[in-house]
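Reviewers of the previous submission asked for a worked example of the structure-prediction workflow described in the proposal, so we include one complete record here. The input consisted solely of the amino acid sequence. No template or homolog information was supplied to the procedure at any stage.
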Amino acid sequence: MNVLQQQVSATRRSWLRSAAAVLAAPIVAVAIGGAGGLSPAFAQSTANPDKFIEGLTRQILDQIRGDKEIQSGNPRRISEFVDATIMPNVNFERMTSLAVGRGWRQANPEQQKRLMSEFRVVLLRTYSSALAAVKDQQVRMKPFRGSASDPEVVVRSEIVQARGEPIQLDYRLEKAGEAWKIYDVNVLGVWLVETYRNQFSQEINASGVDGLIKSLSDKNKSFEEAAKKS
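From that input alone, the workflow returned the following structure tokens.
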């Protein structure tokens, strides 16, 4: 169980997974580019960061509901979906560097590449079941208190469904040319980057950057082997 899960009550964990699937799963692949995966009309509306998040979230929810392979938990299809639809809108290099912290500055380019690759797998395996859990959730935006001209903003939203309390889901975004890129996500008051940075710093302090890479790789391989057996 990771730190993020430990900080929410058992009654909210299924909600957390559903909310995380919308984009924490920011969080979950390694393509970095423009507004790939979005319709042309939507791509033109990204000047306002709150409208960008609202449109992207609704598109993701709609696509998941209409894709039986994602709903069944097919790992190949989930990976393809994340790469095509979610990650073109995420600065994954910045997300990884912030999560790794000071170790990122110590890492050479090859180590940084490995860290991004293994972190991507960590996020995919963490949130793959969440993608399959999406059913009747809807996004509700909170008033945006920043400006579209700011270089970085926080956009706040809630994920609501037929029963239960709304789930807080906030985003940190940076301006990238005319588009916006997500680099951190807050679920129920817990920021994703901070959560992983606390975990990764312990690994780096104990065994360095290579130790963190090995730890992530070993955990990912163990998960893959367990998935094959099941």
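Residues 3-225 form a domain with the Nuclear Transport Factor 2; Chain: A, fold (CATH 3.10.450.710). We consider this example representative of the routine output the project will generate in years two and three.
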